[in-house]
Each structure stands twice: as structure tokens, then as C-alpha cells.
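Sequence in, structure out.
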Amino acid sequence: MSQIRASRRLTLLAAGAAVGALLLSACGGEETGSSSGDTKFVQGTGQITKVARGKRTSVPDLKGPSVDGKKLKLSDYKGKVVVLNVWGSWCSPCRAEAPNLAKVARSTEGKDVQFLGINTRDLDKANAKAFERNYEIDYPSFYDPSGKLILKFPRNTLSPQAIPSTLILDKDGKVAVRALKELSEKELRSALDPLLAAK
């Protein structure tokens, strides 16, 4: 029994180290801008990558509790375009882009699109809930304080490698757009509209 416990402990430690490496890999640096002075978030590259239809790859079927305690499963939204945003209440660029995400989510309601979040590194759900209230985020978010869901994305794929990151999945559940930056309303609409218009 003690060997099993030791093995589990090592597995958890390895997972924790991997999450730490992922989340800290882009921290710091000499970049400035809206992130200047905030050392707690993972700096993005500022890139928005768009993928042609025939070259898109699927994402893992994420599942787990939401910030409000309900069950969430990514595959439940297959057949819709999905905007998947990685955020934390402690992250200043996340706070900057939150009103843009909320506004576009409301304006596209009733269309074939679903906005989802992945809340990460918020050890207290109260902070995540306050963020959603303050920025009028009406769509659900996975609660992923340790970053386990982010680790499910295979290496060398268009995974969410920074905080904030946004993936836009096409109706087949494949990555059509990845943004490693905070998104303006204009940037988000520009990336989303062609996918909503696609047959």
C-alpha cells in the first residue's frame, strides 16, 4: 500500500512540476505593455495563429467542474464554434480582455457559438466568481486551479500556452485560431466571424 501511495505522490509531484514549467515558461522577460509590472501571469507572444480547414487538429475532450460547481464537458458543444479562453482573476491582461469577451459572447448569443473559459491558478473559487460577476461573464468556465486541463493538450500542438490564451474551435472541434495575447473586441470578431459564416 505504501508503494502505491509513494507512486501516486511522485505522479502528483511530476504533474505539478510540469504545470509549473508550462505556466512559468513565458513569465518575466523584457516585454512591456499592458502586462508591464505584473509578474504573476504568463506572458503571451502576441501572436494570433489562423489554421486552414484541412490542417486543423482536434483538441482533447476536456471535462470537469465549472467555477459554479456544475459539470462541464467540451464535447457537449460539438457542432458549434467554441471560443475557449484561459484566464485567471489575478491576471491583469485577463481583466483587460474580459469585457471584450463578454460583449462578443452576448452579441453572438443564439448563433452556433459557445463561449467557455478555463479558470486557472485561482486557488479560491470566490476570486473566480467575483471576476465573473464584475465583468458580467455569463458563460461557464472550467475550474482548473492546478492547470491539469491545460496539460491535456498534446505537446507541439496549438495549445493554450499563456495566460490569457484563446482558442477558437470550428464546428468539428478542431483548432481554427489560437491567440497568445489579450484580445480586443475587433480582433475577436475578426477571428470568429469567418467561422460562424462557414457552412
